[in-house]
C-alpha cells in the first residue's frame, strides 16, 4: 500500500487476503444494512451505518483510549488524552442544547446520567485495570477484533463472560449507599454547564502539557511524526479521529435518542448464550426489568447497541483491508492469553456495575455533563495506571 501526503495510491502491494476482506466486509455490510432497513426500519439501518463509520474511524485514527492512557503513565506523552478532551469538548457543545431541547423530529432525547456511588468507583477501577491487561477498552476491543487481532477475540469472549457475571451480581451493587445523579446542565443551566465542562477539559489539557514538558522538554503531536496520512487507507491524524467520533456520538443521540453505548450488548449476547446453555438468568434482578427481559426474547438485530457493535467490527475489517493490514496471528504466548482472559472479565464486570464503559460512562456521561462520567474517568485512569504496571508480569510491553 503506497500513500502520499496528497492522497492514497492503491497498488498491487495490497495482499489477496486484504482484497478478500474488503470485498467480504463491504458485501456483508450491504446485506445487513438492507436487511435491517427492510425488517426493522430506516433508523436501525442508519445506526448500523453509524457503527460502520465508527469502526473505520477507530481503526484508521488508531483512536485507542487504552493506549492513550498508557502513554501518559509510561512515557508521559499526553497527545492521545488531549485529543480525547477535544472530542469531549465538541460533544458537550452539541449535546447540551440538544438534550435541553428534550426532543427532535418527534424523538425524545436523554443524556447518560447515573448515580455517584462506590459501584462507579470500583467498577471503573476494575475496567481500567482490565483495559491494560486485556489490551483494549470497549470500543477498542471491537475494532481490533474486526481488524483481525486474535488475542482481542479472547478478550472479547472474556468481556462477554465478565458482563454476565456483572448482571448476576448487579442487584448486590444497587443496594449500596448512593448520591443522586448530578447533571451540570440540569443544576446550573446549559451555558454554565458548557463553561464548567470546558474549564475541566482545559485543566486536563494543561496538566498533561505541564507533565509532558517536565519529562521531555517539549510536546509531541501528530505533526512531529514523519508519516503520510490517507483518508482512504489510513492512518488518520488524532484530531480527525476526535472530531469524527464526536460526530458518531451526536449521530447516535439523534437517531437513538440517547448517547452511544457498547457494553450493554455484551451482557445481552452473554445472556442469550447463558439461556442457550440452560442457565436460568431470567430470575436475576438485572434481567427482570421489562426492556431487558424483552431484549432476551427478541433478535439481537432489534437491539441498537448490538447493531452498532456489529457495524464497528465490520467497519474495522473494511479499514484493515484498505490499509493492507488484515493478517490474523494465531500464535499467542500463554501469559498473553491469561492476561486477555483476566482483563476481559474485569472489563465486563466493571462496566456492568459502573453504569457503562469508556464510551457509555466516560464519553457519553461527560458529554451529557454528568458528574458520574468524571468520577468514572478518575477511577478508571487510576485502574489503568495499575494495569500498566502489571503488564510486564504477563509479558506485555
Helix-strand makeup class: mainly alpha
Largest sheet: 2 strands, antiparallel
Number of strands: 6
The gyration radius over C-alpha positions equals 20 Å
Beta content comes to: under 5%
Commentary on this structure:
The chain is mainly alpha-helical and 397 residues long. The strands form three sheets. The chain has a two-stranded antiparallel ribbon. It has a two-stranded antiparallel sheet with strand order 3-4. α4 packs parallel to α11. Helix content is 68%, strand content 4%. It has 17 helices and six strands. The longest helix has 27 residues. The protein has one domain.
Jot down its keywords.
397 residues; mainly alpha; two-stranded antiparallel sheet; two-stranded antiparallel ribbon; 17 helices; 68% helix; globular; disordered N terminus
Amino acid at each position: 500500500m503506497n500513500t502520499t501526503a496528497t492522497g492514497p495510491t492503491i497498488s498491487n502491494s495490497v495482499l489477496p487476503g486484504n482484497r478478500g476482506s474488503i470485498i467480504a466486509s463491504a458485501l456483508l455490510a450491504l446485506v445487513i444494512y438492507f436487511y435491517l432497513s427492510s425488517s426493522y426500519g430506516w433508523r436501525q439501518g442508519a445506526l448500523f451505518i453509524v457503527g460502520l463509520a465508527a469502526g473505520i474511524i477507530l481503526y484508521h485514527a488508531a483512536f485507542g483510549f487504552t493506549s492513550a492512557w498508557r502513554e501518559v503513565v509510561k512515557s508521559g506523552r499526553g497527545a492521545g488524552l488531549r485529543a480525547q478532551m477535544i472530542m469531549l469538548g465538541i460533544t458537550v457543545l452539541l449535546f447540551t442544547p440538544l438534550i435541553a431541547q428534550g426532543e427532535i423530529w418527534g424523538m425524545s432525547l436523554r443524556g447518560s446520567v447515573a448515580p455517584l456511588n462506590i459501584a462507579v468507583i470500583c467498577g471503573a477501577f476494575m475496567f481500567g485495570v482490565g483495559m491494560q491487561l486485556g489490551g483494549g477498552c470497549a470500543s477498542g476491543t471491537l475494532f481490533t477484533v474486526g481488524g483481525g487481532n486474535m488475542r482481542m477475540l479472547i478478550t472479547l469472549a472474556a468481556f462477554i463472560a465478565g458482563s454476565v457475571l456483572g448482571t448476576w451480581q448487579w442487584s448486590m451493587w444497587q443496594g449500596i449507599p448512593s448520591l443522586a445523579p448530578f447533571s451540570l446542565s440540569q443544576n446550573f443551566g446549559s451555558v454554565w454547564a458548557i463553561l464548567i465542562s470546558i474549564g475541566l477539559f482545559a485543566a486536563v489539557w494543561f496538566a498533561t502539557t505541564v507533565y509532558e514538558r517536565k519529562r521531555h522538554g517539549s510536546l509531541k503531536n501528530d505533526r512531529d511524526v514523519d508519516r503520510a496520512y490517507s483518508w482512504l487507507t489510513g492512518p488518520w491524524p488524532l484530531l480527525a479521529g476526535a472530531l469524527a467520533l464526536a460526530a458518531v456520538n451526536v449521530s447516535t443521540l439523534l437517531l437513538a435518542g440517547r448517547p452511544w453505548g457498547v457494553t450493554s450488548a455484551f451482557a445481552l449476547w452473554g445472556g442469550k448464550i447463558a439461556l442457550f446453555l440452560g442457565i436460568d438468568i431470567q430470575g436475576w434482578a438485572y434481567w427482570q426489568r421489562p426492556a431487558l427481559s424483552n431484549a432476551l426474547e427478541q433478535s439481537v438485530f432489534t437491539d441498537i447497541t448490538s447493531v452498532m457493535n456489529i457495524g464497528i467490527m465490520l467497519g474495522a475489517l473494511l479499514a484493515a483491508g484498505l490499509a493492507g493490514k488484515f493478517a490474523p496471528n494465531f500464535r499467542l504466548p500463554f501469559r498473553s492469553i491469561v492476561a486477555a482472559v483476566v482483563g476481559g472479565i474485569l472489563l465486563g464486570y466493571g462496566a456492568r456495575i459502573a453504569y457503562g464503559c469508556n464510551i457509555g460512562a466516560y464519553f457519553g456521561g461527560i458529554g451529557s455533563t454528568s458528574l458520574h462520567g468524571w468520577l468514572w474517568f478518575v477511577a478508571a485512569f487510576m485502574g489503568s495506571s495499575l494495569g500498566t504496571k502489571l503488564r510486564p508480569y504477563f509479558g506485555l510491553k
